[in-house]
Amino acid sequence: MSMTAPSITTPKKSALMLFFLFLLIYLLPGIYGHSPWKQDENYSFGIIQTMYETGNWLVPTNAGEPFMEKPPLYYWTATVFSHLLSGVMPLYDAARSASLFFSIINFSFFVLLARRFFKSEHFADARIWTAFALYVCAPGVLRHTHEMFTDVSLMTGATIGLYGLLGLIQQQKITASACWLALGTIITTLSKGIFIPGVLWISLLLAPVFITQCRIKLFWLPTLLAGVVALIAILPWPIMLYVQHPELFVTWFWENNIGRFLGFSVEKLGAKANFTRIPSAIVFFALPAGLLATAYFLRHPLKRLRDRNEYLLVIFPVLGVTFLQMSASGRALYLLPFIAPMAILAVHTLGWFSDKALNVFARFSALFWSGLILFLWICYVIVLMGHQAQWLPVFGRWLPLDYHLEFSIFSLISGMFITCFWFFRHRLISSSNTAFLAMRNWSLGMVSVWSIILTLFVGWIDYSKGYEGVFVDLRHHLEGQFAPNDCMASQGLGESETPMLYYYTGILHQRQMHFEKPQHCRWLIVYSKEVNPAPEGMEFFWSNHRPDEFHENLVVYRATE
Question: Could you say which of 44, 227, 250, 296 is the most buried, measured as most Cβ atoms within 10 Å of its Cβ?
Answer without folding.
Answer: 44
